[in-house]
Amino acid sequence: MSEAVNLAAPDVEIATVREHTTRASQVVTMIAIVVPPLGIIAVAFGLWGIAFSWVDVAVFLTLYVLTGLGTTVGFHRLFTHRSFETTKTVRAIFAILGSMTLQGPVTQWVTDHRKHHALSDEEGDPHSPHAGFAPNAWGAVKGFFHAHMGWLFHLKGMERGERYGKDLYDDTLIRRIDRMYFVWVVLTFAIPFAIGYAVGGASWKLGLEVLIWGGLIRIFAYQHATFSVNSICHMFGRRSYRSRDESRNNWVVAALTFGEGWHNNHHAFPASARHGLDRLQLDIAWLTIRSLEKLGLAWNVRLPTMSQRERRRLV
């Protein structure tokens, strides 16, 4: 394993290359945020009768874990921070799974996130709950909403240039997967429907039921778990290490996002493949990377040394 290297550097230019986010991005964002809750409402009011079974639970959990790891291991630790290396096949699998969370194509997600690290909680950070908001209760409310999902409608996808993503734009595999983004969007709904349809013996009713739980509600749940890293983990929680922002560790968010909630640890050591650095900090994404390493499918895994951690430790 190699030492973690901080990819985020101070005094980085804001480098916005678009005046506003694209209409397509706004439409997909609206679908991802508004449509899934409609599935919850539909079930709550019994539009499909009593619609809940072991098939719904199994598909929900399986796709939640697989697509969630697509963003936490793939989009975040592999593509954004290059915290480990792997094969082209594994890269492609994580890129596709991450795209199925409806959080945007790989290059868009990565460039937005790299900009967040470069300007964390300062002017230019696309989803800081602090920068640009008054230091009072109402400012905190507005900042929380902006960080949670408000930024998606006017700042998402603006960094499509070379400053924050040249390595991925030069990667033909990633560009090809990006061009097929809407195929993965369709697939994330088609898979649960197909499972329900097949298990139910060509039953459209069960197909729609599993589509709701394994598609709409699953996306809704994971979307807001991820949004919470930007909002909750920059406002509520514990700071264990020195970082130049307001990032915090929150165990609830960590549990829902496979380790992303150990956010202060991550901002202190951005290139680390492991976010749950301390005792009892469960990090499923790290366990996944560690398993890949043992199988020979991951190498050059970056971790902070004990001396690096002690130099930055606060508590």
Question: What report would you give on this structure?
Answer:
The two termini are 26 Å apart. Helix content is 56%, strand content 3%. The chain is globular and about 60 Å long. It is mostly helical and 315 residues long. It has helices at residues 23-44, 54-80, 88-99, 106-118, 137-148, 166-169, 172-179, 181-199, 204-231, 251-256, 263-268, 284-294, 306-312, and strands at residues 2-3, 85-86, 298-299, 302-303. The strands form two sheets. It has a two-stranded parallel ribbon. Strands 2-3 form a two-stranded antiparallel sheet. The longest helix has 28 residues, at 204-231. It has one domain. Helix 2 crosses helix 3 (88-99) and helix 8 packs across helix 9. The protein is built from 13 helices and four strands.
Topology:
Blueprint: E1 2-3, H1 23-44, H2 54-80, E2 85-86, H3 88-99, H4 106-118, H5 137-148, H6 166-169, H7 172-179, H8 181-199, H9 204-231, H10 251-256, H11 263-268, H12 284-294, E3 298-299, E4 302-303, H13 306-312
Parallel strand pairs: 1-4
Antiparallel strand pairs: 2-3
Quick recap:
The chain has helices at 23-44, 54-80, 88-99, 106-118, 137-148, 166-169, 172-179, 181-199, 204-231, 251-256, 263-268, 284-294, 306-312, and strands at residues 2-3, 85-86, 298-299, 302-303.
Strand order within the widest beta sheet: 1-4
Radius of gyration, taken over Cα atoms and rounded to an integer in Å: 19 Å
How far apart, in Å, are the first and last alpha carbons? 26 Å
The gross shape turns out to be globular
